[in-house]
Design brief:
The structure holds three protein chains of three kinds. By secondary structure, chain A is mainly alpha-helical. Chain A has one domain: Orthogonal Bundle (ABC transporter involved in vitamin B12 uptake, BtuC). Chain A has twelve helices and four strands, in the order H-H-H-H-E-E-E-E-H-H-H-H-H-H-H-H. In chain A, a hairpin with a 3-residue loop joins strand 2 and strand 3. The radius of gyration of chain A is 20 Å and the shape is globular. Chain B is mainly α. Chain B has one domain: Orthogonal Bundle (ABC transporter involved in vitamin B12 uptake, BtuC). Chain B is built from 14 helices and two strands, in the order ααααααβααααβαααα. In chain B, strands 1-2 form a two-stranded antiparallel sheet. The mean pLDDT of chain B is 89. By secondary structure, chain C is α/β, with parallel strands linked by helices. Chain C has one domain: Rossmann fold, CATH 3.40.50. Chain C is built from nine helices and ten strands. Chain C has a six-stranded mixed β-sheet with strand order 6-7-8-3-9-10, sandwiched between helices. In chain C, strands 2-1-4-5 form a four-stranded antiparallel β-sheet, covered by helices on one side. The longest helix of chain C has 16 residues. The model of chain C has no long low-confidence stretch (mean pLDDT 90). The chains are: A mainly alpha, B mainly alpha, C alpha/beta.
């Protein structure tokens, strides 16, 4: 039986929170798409995956490239993919020319995911790629806080520099998104369309353009999440699926369409996973079951309170 | 003058082809294997289209039920010493039972929520099968005893063909019965169906149980043919392939889905040199079919043929009647 | 004889009180109009009766049995049929199949041919028999409305709830629907009809229920309700 002491617990919590911020960023993208288009994108994981590869290859090709720029460019790539896809395949939904739109959206985004995953596999091959750490922490000591290039130690709690960087990037991006949504004209347009398409159209907002933008922004956020994490994990074309499933869990937990819900949900899932993994005695099985904890929460939420924490009651 | 009923011609031709395939392919046992796998996918695709295209339940748990059939029989053989036949029968029932539970849990879930929940179920099953190494063999999979006492593929070929024809026959009978009527009304408009007195709970759950059992049966037979089952069969990519086969074949047509599956499986094999690019093309085809040909690519051809015949028959019937009335006046 | 009792029904949605203590009874084949300003709760009330919503307080009884809380299909099977504000035929099924659904749902043992014959009979009454094999989605709006009414007859309910049957309907069709209602009513079925078409509903109904802000403010024959000051105020506002 593993000794549960405070330091171990805090370590798990810290790990969970850090990864939770990235989950939250990715889920934010998914929930943004849902709030404006009323569509759950089943290709979200693949944008995360492509973002990671885009960042990796950009950094490999342009050796002087700053990692943050690489992340931005990776986001642009996935933004473009999302916007083009929306324009061609989801436009009929926005124009309300589709019978049984719910089914169509599920199937066509699923198809996109399938297509993107195998396209990447065909272009890049199955061998995992791992990017080098983006930033080396400056070595210093300040009381209980010790930093080396790869790790920041708060007392006895080690935080990997890569995850820390990713978490910081995620937090910054989320703050930027929040600002965008609440304090800019663009954000106001998105919110208007998410509430009432026709009313938005009447006041001069183009709901079709907003739909394209929202989808693109959503996929951009997924891409940037991947780009931020590609130094942390071995990246393969199949890496999108588990990440996507986590996003679904998070948006259902937080409430579909709710951005605060996505953020809080991300943190909760990150922490739950970390705690769950750490607390199972057998390390091999614990790791294999890591994704299962989120699923359990997911199933419970769907059955007991489908609108999640902050979702609208349909 | 008797009009040629193309339905019978084509069906007959296809049956003759299918029945004589082992003879035609006698020098190419690999292709016989491809055919067996193709029939397996055809059973999965057509049963999925019954669940989704008829009853409107877009479940991603179909492969999970198939896996329950496979692993169930394998584990029963391993721990209880059951014969493959017994194992398959019992695990099919088990798949039905799990289908019942999932069906009940999914009653209040619609659209994306239903899809997500069934994905979650499938993933949890996959994770569990991967994790419990001692019991299931984990990622390396579980060995299964052969179903038939033979070294040739031919008996398995006929078995799978028979299974395909039997399940299609059963599903067609179901679709033509009140089950089919109620399934479709639920898909069209569940609220209106309820207002018309359709027992929503019973028929939604029935859709799950029936299709789960068909998938489980197919899974059990296939697993005992191949001799091995791994959790990889449960990855979402596999479910996507089945869905793509059903969509491209025609999601509202059982036979369209089945034919779609067979054609696609053979195409994938024929294009093996293209490696992963085959699936890229497949994915693109799926998206384009959804966008521009929602009834699928195979089904419209069938529709033109079958319904054309049916409509002609009705019109001719009416013309006859009108003639009789005219003559009687 | 059919008896429906709505007893002190309240319905809350979050902070909104959609229905605030509504009580009335329907005995036998009454022809009742349900009117009130927009947002008064008319459709909500019919949703409660037909089982789409469960009342937060109070209950609905049909022939002595408590039906509030049962799923909609159970209530439909007990003899309450309804239409929706927007026509909801089964679009990708044929007219005949649309008609067969309720009949086969209610009678597990019946023979399909009997139902087919009955369906044709009703379709002839609605002058739609020639469309029997057409898909519902290729019908005109008016024909779809008639199909919905035909479907109701196949359900053979004792109480029929119609939600805005005359909305957006051209005069010839209005006549057909009027005839449908009066004929079927004479055959012994009760009607609750929601309508904003004042002229029609006043002439058609034997009794009017007037709803405002989720409360029943009048219940009586049209001539009486017409002059009720509460009703006038609800529609036109207080006279200065």
């Amino acid at each position: 039986m593993v000794e549960i002491n405070l330091s171990f617990l805090l370590r798990l919590l810290a790990d969970g929170l850090l990864i939770g911020f990235i989950y939250a960023l990715m889920a934010m993208g998914l929930t943004l798409i849902f709030s404006v288009l009323r569509v759950v994108s089943f290709a979200h994981g693949e944008h995360y995956m492509i973002g990671g590869f885009a960042a990796y290859y950009l950094l490999e090709t342009f050796t002087g490239l700053h990692p943050l720029v690489a992340i931005l460019l990776a986001g642009s790539v996935t933004f473009a993919i999302g916007a083009v896809f929306e324009r061609i395949f989801l436009r009929p939904l926005a124009e309300e020319k589709v019978e049984r739109p719910g089914e169509y959206a599920i199937l066509v985004t699923f198809g996109l995911g399938f297509f993107l995953q195998y396209l990447t596999l065909a272009l890049i091959g199955p061998h995992p790629k791992k990017a080098a750490r983006y930033f080396d922490l400056p070595a210093f000591e300040l009381g209980p806080i010790k930093a080396t290039a790869a790790t920041l130690k708060l007392g006895t709690i080690p935080l990997s520099a890569t995850r820390l960087t990713a978490a910081v990037i995620a937090v910054v991006l989320m703050l930027i998104m929040l600002y965008l949504i609440h304090h800019t004209w663009l954000g106001r347009g998105l919110r208007a369309v998410s509430q009432d398409k026709q009313a938005a159209a009447v006041v001069g907002i183009n709901p079709l353009r907003m739909s394209t933008l929202a989808f693109g922004m959503g996929t951009m956020l997924a891409g940037m999440s991947g780009a931020a994490l590609v130094p942390a994990f071995a990246w393969v074309p199949a890496v999108g699926a588990p990440a996507a499933v986590k996003s679904y869990v998070i948006i259902v937990l937080g409430g579909m369409g709710s951005i605060p819900g996505a953020m809080l949900g991300g943190l909760i899932i990150g922490v739950v996973e970390a705690l769950g993994t750490g607390l199972l005695p057998d390390p091999n099985r614990a790791f294999a079951y890591r994704d299962a904890y989120g699923m359990l929460i997911f199933a419970l939420v769907l059955l007991l309170r489908p609108r999640g924490l902050f979702g609208r009651q349909e | 003058m008797k009009r040629v009923d193309w339905r019978w011609v084509l069906t007959g031709g296809a049956l003759v082809l299918a029945l004589s395939a082992p003879l035609l392919l006698s020098g190419y046992p690999y292709w016989l294997h491809v055919a067996i796998v193709a029939y397996f996918y055809a059973i999965l695709a057509s049963s999925w289209s019954l669940l989704a295209g008829y009853a409107g339940q877009f479940s991603f748990a179909h492969m999970a039920f198939m896996a329950i059939g496979a692993y169930g029989s394998g584990l029963m053989g391993k721990y209880w010493g059951t014969t493959p036949l017994t194992g398959i029968v019992l695990s099919t029932l088990l798949a039905g039972l799990v289908g019942l539970v999932i069906g009940v849990l999914c009653l209040r879930l619609k659209g994306a929520y239903l899809a997500l929940f069934t994905i979650a179920f499938s993933e949890v099953l996959r994770l569990t099968l991967n994790a419990e190494l001692d019991i299931t063999g984990g990622p390396n999979g579980l060995d299964l005893a052969p179903l038939l006492n033979t070294t040739s593929r031919v008996p398995y070929y006929y078995l799978m063909l028979a299974l395909l024809l039997a399940s299609l026959g059963f599903m067609y009978w179901l679709a033509g019965s009140r089950f089919g009527l109620f399934f479709r009304s639920i898909r069209e408009d569940e609220e209106a169906a309820a207002a018309m007195g359709v027992h929503i709970v019973r028929y939604k759950v029935a859709a799950f149980v029936i299709t789960a059992m068909i998938a489980g049966l197919a899974g059990g037979v296939e697993a005992h043919y191949i001799g091995l089952i791994t959790p990889n069969i449960l990855i979402l990519g596999q479910m996507s392939i089945v869905i793509a086969m059903a969509v491209i074949g025609g999601i509202e047509s059982l036979i369209g889905a089945a034919i779609g599956a067979i054609l696609i499986q053979f195409s994938l094999e024929l294009l093996r040199e293209l490696g992963n690019w085959r699936l890229v093309a497949f994915g693109l085809l799926l998206m384009l079919t959804l966008r521009f040909a929602r009834n699928g690519l195979i089904y419209p051809l069938i529709e033109r043929l079958v319904l054309y015949q049916a409509r002609r028959a009705v019109i001719e019937g009416r013309e006859q009647k009108a003639k009789q009335v005219g003559e009687g006046a | 004889m059919m008896e429906l009792e709505v007893r002190d029904v309240h319905l809350h949605f979050g902070g909104i009180r959609a229905l605030n203590g509504v009580s009335f009874s329907v005995r036998g084949p009454e022809l009742i109009g349900l009117i009130g300003p927009n947002g008064a709760g008319k459709t909500t009330l019919t949703n409660v009766i037909s089982g789409v919503y469960k009342p937060s307080q109070g209950a609905v009884y049909l022939n002595g049995e408590r039906i509030s809380g049962l799923p909609p299909y159970q209530i439909a099977r007990r003899g309450v049929g309804r239409t929706f504000q927007v026509t909801r035929a089964f679009r990708r099924m044929t007219v005949l199949e649309n008609m067969l659904v309720p009949a086969m749902a209610l009678h597990p043992a019946g023979r399909r041919q009997e139902f087919v014959d009955r369906a044709h009979e009703i379709l002839r009454f609605l002058t739609m028999d020639h469309l029997a094999l057409e898909y519902a989605r290729s019908l005109s709006g008016g024909q779809q409305k008639l199909l919905e009414l035909g479907r109701l007859l196949m359900l053979d309910p004792d109480l029929i709830i119609l939600d805005e049957p005359f909305a957006g309907v051209h005069p010839k069709l209005r006549e057909t629907i009027w005839e449908f209602i009066t004929t079927v009513h004479q055959q012994g079925k009760a009607f609750i009809i929601i309508s904003h078409d004042m002229e029609t509903i006043f002439t058609l109904s034997q009794r009017l229920l007037v709803l405002n802000f989720g409360q029943l403010i009048a219940d009586g024959p049209p001539e009486q309700v017409k002059d009720d000051p509460a009703v006038i105020e609800a529609y036109l506002g207080k006279e200065e």
